[in-house]
User: Fold this.
Amino acid sequence: MRKIISFMHISLDGFVAGPKGEMNWIKVDEPLFDYLGLRIGQTDLAMYGRVTHQMMDGYWTNAWKKPDASKHDREHAKWYQDVQKVVLSNTLTSSDEGKVKIINNHIVSQINDIKQQPGSDILLFGSPSATHSLMEMNLIDGYWLFVNPIVLGEGIPLFKNIQHKINLKLLNTRKFNNEVVELDYIVDRGE
Assistant:
């Protein structure tokens, strides 16, 4: 069965964005981009909340066309064009793009159907509101976190209104030269 893995950059104090959604504190460099590209490139289904999807679509659809596009921009834009996408939204009902499935009702049953289909694990990119909703529904199976060396003090938390304990098993850690630390967890449901 496929797993939904929440992929986030977070601050040391657990925020995924500043109070107004700022993400300018996230540290990225070429070695980190290369590392992320390897795992993301193995993913055949990406999941987003509406806001994150619209932000990503606005950038990655044309990123490869820019004359100064980096290797990462070209590679990720190619992946973004090819990957199947699921967008969780209360307001969108359809998409003109053939590779996008909109889910706005019967979320648990639709996501469980997707998890039963063959393919890679599903990466849930950013999307704090969608992540919070899926946490409440117990649909997230893992967390692929990149802890940035900063304490924000306030902002949008990764974990919010948790009504049940979430046991995690650490799969991997890695420290990058830019002081970012990867924490890769799977939810331990005692199965």
About this structure: The radius of gyration is 16 Å. The domain at 4-187 is CATH 3.40.430.10 (Dihydrofolate Reductase, subunit A). The helical segments are 30-41, 50-60, 71-82, 107-116, 128-136. Residues 32 and 176 are 7 Å apart (CA to CA).
